[in-house]
Amino acid sequence: MSERRIVVRPEGVTISAGDGSSRFVPAPPGYSLSYMDADGRIVGQGERAVDGWYDWHFVLEGETLRRDGPAY
Amino acid sequence: MGLLRQATFAAAYVASGGALHAGQAPAPSTCVAAKDDRPDPIRVQWLAGNDWRYGNADQADLAYRRLKGCESPWPEWHQEQVVTLPAGLRFEMAVAPGQPVDRPGAFGTFDHIPDVSYVRRTLAVKTKWKPKVDRVVTYEITEPVPADTGVIGPQIDVEGGAYLPGGGSQLQMKVPATERMRHLKVVGTPRQIQ
Predict the structure, then answer these.
(1) Measured between alpha carbons, how far is A26 from A48 in angstroms, rounded to an integer?
(2) B112 and B167 share a domain?
(3) Are A70 and B129 inside 8 Å of each other by CB?
(4) What is the ipTM score, two decimals?
């Protein structure tokens, strides 16, 4: 299996594969990405609170970042 | 709280059988954890400190499942009241490995954070909210910032297998995340904790 490298920037995530290819997954609308947590989820910081939380964990699923749960 | 909000809250309070939820209104029922009759040692610990708040066992069970599923960072009795924290005030924040200090979270504490155990137990930071913590950053408010403040509520840390009693002090900044650093500056060097 080729090694993956993930770089988190405020505007999105770049996933580079071992074969030299890469793809970019943009941050969800209204979110600025911050860092990757120890469990591999990505923290996005929002312009507005959702259910009382501004910061959320997102999980990379294909070409999208799925909201997973609150981030502290 | 406006009149409409008060009326909404009152209606929801009655509809929930008089069981208060954190914040200004009960959380939507969709986030309440499913009823589960299997042995749950964390539930036993939570009941030991909290069942007195409820009129009967069913209400206490509902409150437990609401906390487990809805994860409010505030105690059930907390009523949101946003205040303006003044310039010059300092607070601490536990941050994760790789988290830039100029990307703070929304929550801070006026407590001194001695170690990771304090972050979990007294600040009640669930494992899934922040899987690892390695540093403490001191921030100073440079421009007044609106924030909700109060006592930290208990949490059910399913992933960590623990009851987190909370009880520390907490502030939650009420500005868009990207604007937080307009109100803050970092004081000194982040402190490593274990």
Answers:
(1) 18
(2) yes
(3) yes
(4) 0.91
